[in-house]
Amino acid sequence: MKILSTAILLGAACVANLTAMAANSSDKEIIRVSTDNTDLLLEVAPNGRLYQTYLGPRLLHDTDVTNFTWRQSTGSDGSVSPRGWEAYSTSGNEDFFEPAIGVIHADGNMSTYLYYVNSTQETTNGVTHTRINLRDNQYPLEVTLNYQTYPKDNVIKTWTEIRHDEKKPITLTGYASAMLYFNEPAYYLTEFSSDWAKEAKMTQEQLHFGKKVIDTKLGSRAAMHTHPFFEIGLGSPVQENSGEVLMGTLGWTGNFRFTFEVDNAGNLRVIPGINPFASSYSLKAGEVFKTPEFIFTLSYDGAGQGSRDLQAWARKYQLKDGMGSRMTLLNNWENTTFNFDQNLLAQLMKEAKDLGVDMFLLDDGWFGNKYPRKDDRNGLGDWTATASKLPEGIPGLVDAAKDAGVKFGIWIEPEMVNPNSELYEQHPDWVIEQPNRDTYYYRNQLVLDLSNPKVQDYVFGVVDKILSENPDVAYFKWDCNSPITNIYSPYQKDKQGNLYVDHVRGVYNVLKRVNDKYPDTPMMLCSGGGSRCDYEALKYFTEFWCSDNTDPMERAYIQWGFSQFFPAKAMAAHVTSWNKNTSIKFRTDMASMCKLGFDIGLHELTSEELEYARGAVANWKRLQPVIMDGVQYRLVSPYDTNHMAVEYVGSDRDSAVVFAYDLSPRFCEKINKVKLSGLDPMARYSVKEINLMPSADARCPQDGKVYTGDYLMKVGLDLFSDRPSTSMVVELNAVKS
Ligand code: GLA
């Protein structure tokens, strides 16, 4: 009775406020969240609560959106319960499966029921933002569901805001970003597990009754063991070019959790959000708890199309300078580690120039005086140049780079501290560390407490000082090598449950300040390799470091994995000495399918190899618009074959580049042609093999010939061989007749 009367009251409010309705008959309140290809339908049921009625391919006929009935379940005793696909299911209600939100109210009550209040829909620059306000009928608790749709890119971004006016703080025990439901014959989850040097490892499994949880509890360096994205094949396993696939990713640089639960009726619910592990969050009245953004696409043509949509969306809307160009670089980490001085760096800058790259990037080891950073036990936190190594400091390095004719970039890891540092001596209370237990260290360092605004000021000041004193510093590599260990914040006092969340928010406060003041400074996100790879951080970074593992054989898999969610432009890849048994060509061709850099002593190269490398840099720069901004087609998977091929098609389909790699083919194995994609079938394209060693002839039999796009897509090119660790790069250009 009570529920019914609430529904009637709210029903009156709906009519007055709802601008998001596609249909508004007397007994139907429907909110339609659409892209050009996908519809998400939410409906207010007669009980006044909001339910998902549909998520799938966009419905052609507007009238069909009213056809759905909200789901209810029949108990074994024949009783009908209102349990259905509640849009943001609450804890303590009649749904006995995993909820989206858990609240301990100020009076200790642990149940929440959310009723529809009103909603709005606004479109700005083609992006539509739907806000749906829900409210508990017994407690002054409000929840706003947000959906932002990018119609052309078929991407939906969703997040939730929670606030209350209770007399005392409430405790949030769960706070998902969103909740989505599916009803398909079968579900196949692809997860991306990881570790240092083993990033983005794809494995697929079928989901059956019960829960599969993918989560991380690492705090910072949070994605070290698993990345914040997943794919679900709906009905059939995920395939590259066919089938329905949900591809989702959470924009959160801390602990995250994806829960996939198949219930007794075979429905799948997907619940992405911050991991509430050790994070019962105390929320004061009037404060808004904003969850991270969950970004997803539903592809009806396999993961390939989903990736292309996400990549295009990221360049346009999310990635820092997503539409801008990227700098090639020479880094010194793999070459020198901590062992360098000003003279050596000046020489490496000249080598960078000789190689033809845009920038020299100085890595770890340049700072600390009382505790010079001669190894990873010292100096983190003390961001002044080590006078014994670099007597002229950063200004001297900037000048040397100018003399050499390259730009200068620098490594920092400002969220961390070594106990051997002046910072730790001066501010032990700025560090996350247990007051009453033995401390354990990860890479000999501890994490600064970024939930403390004073620490945020300090970290911002690290970047601000370098850039304000040296405006010619052109780039940062921002590292984060440790998870949070010894979890305890002197600043949070009795609100330790807020630490994991507020720490990450503190990191964002700093990054936002840096970005606001230095919007044009490109930055690489690094975390002991690729342990930070999420779309919230990437609002502030132009690219991320995929892995310290630069063995090209391994990189094939790592780059294939990350490409599922990120454009090549966001993925930094360097040519190094890892697996130097493979040729410099193979290593460089592998890095060239992403944002190209080098991290190698050029003295290791023969003159012929150096000449090759110079040519490859020049080719990459010339083809940057195609590789960085083109449409990517993953043609041949290293997971399915002993080879890999990836193609980029430039704007107007006038040009394309194909990277083909023979990873570990078997002797005399059957070699297939590679069929291309995305070309204009009516256009004619010249085929030219590039990135050849100076003395080598082209290996591609079709080199120098012209073919129609139709032929190239239906018949293909001979790009593979049975020779392990070899590669071919082919450029295609439309021939104007
Ligand atoms: C991390 C990074 C490396 C390098 C080192 C420096 O491991 O992933 O690229 O910058 O730190 O200490």
Summed up, the domain count is: 3
Q: Which ligands, by name, code or SMILES, are bound?
A: alpha-D-galactopyranose
How many helices? The count is: 12
CATH architecture of the largest domain: Distorted Sandwich
Number of strands: 39
- Mean pLDDT across every amino acid position: 95
What is the fold-level CATH name, i.e. the topology of the largest domain? Beta-galactosidase, Chain A, domain 5
Contiguous uncertain segments of 5+ residues: 1-25
User: What's the N-to-C terminus distance?
Assistant: 76 Å
- Fraction of residues in helix: 10-25%
Oligomer: single chain
The largest sheet is: 10 strands, antiparallel
CATH H-tier superfamily of the largest domain:
alpha-galactosidase from lactobacil brevis
Structural class by sheet pairing and helices = alpha+beta
What sort of overall outline do the alpha carbons produce when their principal axes are compared?
globular
How would you describe what is shown here?
This protein has twelve helices and 39 strands. Strand 5 (73-74) and strand 6 (80-81) form a beta hairpin. The strands form eight sheets. Strands 8, 9, 10, 11, 14, 15, 17, 18, 22 and 23 form a ten-stranded antiparallel sheet that branches. Strands 24-25-26-29-30-31-32-33 form an eight-stranded parallel β-barrel, surrounded by six helices. The model is unreliable at 1-25 (pLDDT under 50). It is globular, with a radius of gyration of 27 Å. With 737 residues, the protein is α+β, with helices and mostly antiparallel strands. It folds into three domains: 2-59 and 89-318, alpha-galactosidase from lactobacil brevis (Beta-galactosidase, Chain A, domain 5); 335-521, TIM Barrel; 631-734, Immunoglobulin-like (Sandwich), CATH 2.60.40.1180. The relative contact order is 0.08. It binds alpha-D-galactopyranose. Residues 333, 363-364, 411, 479, 481, 526, 528-529, 545, 548 line the site of alpha-D-galactopyranose.
